[in-house]
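[retry 2/3] Undecaprenyl-diphosphatase: previous attempt timed out, resubmitting with same input.
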Amino acid sequence: MDFIELFKAALFGIIEGITEWLPISSTGHMILFNEFMPLDVSEEFYRMFEVVIQLGAILAVVVIFWNQIFPFQKPVYTRRMKKPGLISYINLDIFWLWMKILVACVPAAVIGLLFSEKFEEMFYNYTTVALALIVFGIAFLIVEERHKGKGAKVNALSEITFRLALYIGFFQLIAAIFPGTSRSGATIVGALMLGVSRTVAAEFTFFLAIPVMFGASLLKIVQFGFHFTAMEAAILITGMVVAFVVSILVIKFLMGYIKRHDFKVFGWYRIVLGIVVLAYFGLLAPA
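[retry 2/3] Undecaprenyl-diphosphatase: success.
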C-alpha cells in the first residue's frame, strides 16, 4: 500500500475539514492543493473523491447538532392522557426546519443536476477560483460594514420563513456554479444581507449542507460506479475520516468565534489568497 498517497489523502481531509465550514471555499482550496500535491489516481476517481470526501465533514454536523436536527422524539404523557398518536413522536419545530432546508436546496439541486458537468468544464480552473475568492471576500467586507451596529431581524432558526429559505437557496446556487465562491460563504453572505444573525446564518448553512452534500456525493458515486480498488477505497476512507475529525474542531471553533467577532477576517483572507493565486499561475508558474 502506498503510504505517500494516504498521507496526501489525510492532507486533503485536513483542508476539507477546515475550509468546508470557514467561508473560504473548500472546492477552491482542493483545486489549488491538487495543483501542488496531486493524488496519483485517475481523473475520474479524483473528481468523485473531491466531492465524496465532504461526507466526513457533513457527518460532523450531524454529530454536533443531533439534538437540533433529529425530528423524532419520545412523547411525554401521563396516565390520564390517551395513548399518543404518530404526530406526538415528531418535533414539529424541527420538522418544519427540514421543510425549509429542502426548499432552500431546490435552486442548487435543479441547476446542479442539469448543468453540473458543464459548469465543471467551464469554471473549474484557477482563474475562476481566484476571482471568486476576491469577489466574495470584498462582499464579506461590504456586508459586514453595512451591518455594523445594526440588529438582526432574524435571531432564531424558527424565524426563518419558507420565502427567506428560498432566497438563501439562490445564494447557494452561486457557489454551485462558481468554485471558489464557497457554499458556506455564499449562504452566510446572503443570509446576512437578508437580515439573519451571524449565528443563525451559520447554523442554517451547516444544516443546509447535509442534504446538498449527501445528494452530491450519491450522484458522484453512482456516476463513478462501485468498482473501487483497495487503494482507492483506502484513500477515500482516509480523507473522509480526517475531514470528520477536523470538522468537529473547526465547527466548534467557528460557533464560538462568530459570537464575538464578524466575518471580515475571512474576507481579507479570501482577497489575499485570490491575489496570490492569480500572481502565481499568471506570472510565476512555468509555461
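[retry 2/3] Undecaprenyl-diphosphatase: The radius of gyration is 20 Å.
[retry 2/3] clearing retry counter.
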